[in-house]
Hints:
Helix content: 10-25%
Shape: globular
Oligomer: single chain
Strand content: over 45%
Number of strands: 10
Largest sheet: 10 strands, mixed
Distance between the termini: 48 Å
Structural class: mainly beta
Number of helices: 2
Radius of gyration: 17 Å
Amino acid sequence: MxxxxxxxxxxxxxxxxxxxxxxxxxxxxxxxxxxxxxFFVIKNNSDKDIAITGANSDIxxxxxxxxxxxxxxxxxxxxxxxxxxxxVPAKSSLELKSGSDHxxxxxxKKELKAGDEINLELSFSDGDKKSIKVPVKxxxxxxxxxxx
Length: 148
């Protein structure tokens, strides 16, 4: 019995037990627009800061971490920018959301429709990887969530 419990603990450590991902979704694509984005909340339960250093999916040619920056101190003058990592502080969480940090899915290989599900693999600064299933939601429902 002790060996069995030890095995479960080891498996949990390998799969990043200190990281939880909640509320993941990708925005349905707009016809003739080859890009979309994925959003989620990532919780870091560990005592050390961690960073998402990359993302990968089989649905897009390029998957990048992006953020928005304000220019001229005006929200309407935002510029999307590729970044190298997203830091999640120890014992804290980070929300990836529209108008902020997100995973950009560029060069979609097929249209993303509400009800679809995509696979997304996240890479972390400690070398760990975590695969998640991400449901696709229509633009109207994601805009409603953004307003709240």
